[in-house]
Amino acid sequence: MEAFKFKTLDDLLDDPSGQAELIDGEIVQRPMARMEHGLAQHRTSVELGPFDHPSGPGGWWIATEVSVHYAMHQCPTHDLAGWRKERLPERPRGVFNVIPDWVCEIVSPGHERKDTFTLFTLLMRHRVPYYWLLWPEDRTLIAWELDGDSYRTLANLTLTDDAPVKQRIPPFTELEIDFSYILSA
């Protein structure tokens, strides 16, 4: 019997599918994209666009589907991630090893444990200041902020009807974010 070998970034880069990530030393295939996932990701990017635009509040590099190399055996691909330009004046390139200031994952059926536990603890351990989770099917957002060595809940929002819901949630408090648009059914 062959011993388990933890995979590294080199193994991930050799993966022919291009649709994988490195989680806890294993090459994990990313889930098939669903319409709900794609819309939530796109709409979040649209709502946060002004933070990445010089004519808006600016100050951020925000990207979708970006791989971040946290440690030898950890290189997840985040649905959305952002870096403050004051901390990182030059735009990130390629597989990046600078810890984001904000990460947002859109929870996929069958991958809930990865987003709600594995990435949660990884990001907390690497001191990512803000972590958001979106459940498009449930029309829910939970946002956390690093407080010392652990996350504390900033927002726990579930939309129950079509009423407009706009909120300012850190780290994006300069503008109201339309969560009824992001999580619309």
UniProtKB/TrEMBL annotation:
UniProt keyword list: Endonuclease, Hydrolase, Nuclease
Family matches, as Pfam families: Uma2 (PF05685)
An example molecular function term from Gene Ontology annotations: endonuclease activity
SUPFAM superfamilies given in the database record: Restriction endonuclease-like
The protein's name: Putative restriction endonuclease
Domain Putative restriction endonuclease residues, every copy: 10-170
Stretch forming the signal peptide: none
Organism: Allochromatium warmingii (Chromatium warmingii)
